[in-house]
Design brief:
- This protein folds into two domains: 105 residues, Glycoprotein, Type 4 Pilin; 72 residues, Hypothetical protein ph0010, domain 2 (Dna Ligase, domain 1, 2-Layer Sandwich).
- The longest helix is centred in the first third of the chain and has 21 residues.
- A four-stranded antiparallel β-sheet has the order 2-1-3-8, covered by helices on one side. A four-stranded antiparallel β-sheet has the order 4-7-5-6, covered by helices on one side.
- 32% of the residues lie in helices and 24% in strands.
- By secondary structure, it is α+β, with helices and mostly antiparallel strands.
- It starts with a helix and ends in a 6-residue tail after the last strand.
- The radius of gyration is 17 Å and the shape is globular.
């Protein structure tokens, strides 16, 4: 399910065009450019979830994505690029002045695999550091960490505890209703392939 290099180029260009058009004319996330619908690469027309991460140097500048593959990958990347730039609640909207110093990173998700675990100890025993993205769901809350987060949190127990804090639970929280899923990603950025 890995994309060919030309498809990766196309997705990166699409993400950049989404932000460019918004900065130029206020193009809304729910109005993809007409050329998004004209994408012909078969791998980009398949429904697939993505995350778009923006970085300014080594610093995070925005990250938004989907977990449920609601639309074709090309459209998902278009919308998530816009969201990462303009609606990540942790950051002010991206400005035209800072945009030239921002790099794009794309993560394309495999479908989540439900894990049959009932305790945190069981989860820690099956979690694959540096490989798994993780989704925790309980009650009305859901949170995820992409596999790239292992770079900052290499210890599995810390990885899980920080994800629980991200969801708004305590670090010790666990429920018998906790739903746990994992996924992997195909990740690339502008520096990792020749543009």
């Amino acid at each position: 399910m890995s994309l060919a290099t030309p498809e990766r180029h196309e997705l990166l260009a699409l993400a950049r065009a989404s932000i460019d058009s918004a900065l130029a004319d206020g193009h809304a996330a729910d109005q993809p450019a007409p050329f998004v619908a004209a994408i012909v690469s078969p791998g980009l027309a398949v429904p697939r979830s993505s995350f778009v991460t923006l970085r300014r140097g080594e610093e995070l500048r925005g990250c938004c994505g989907t977990l449920d593959a609601p639309r074709p990958l090309a459209e998902d990347v278009w919308r998530n690029a816009w969201a990462a730039a303009f609606s990540d609640y942790r950051f002010p909207p991206l400005t035209a002045a800072e945009w030239p110093r921002v790099s794009l990173h794309l993560s394309l998700l495999t479908p989540p695999e439900r894990l049959n675990v009932t305790t945190e100890a069981q989860l820690l025993a099956v979690l694959r550091p540096s490989v798994d993205g993780l989704i925790l769901e309980s009650e009305t809350r859901r949170a995820t960490f992409l596999p790239a987060v292992w770079d900052q949190l290499p210890d599995p127990a810390q990885f899980v505890r920080q994800l629980k804090l991200k969801a708004g639970w305590s670090a010790e929280y666990w429920s018998d209703r906790m739903r746990v899923s994992r996924y992997t990603t195909e990740s690339f950025d502008e520096a990792s392939i020749e543009i």
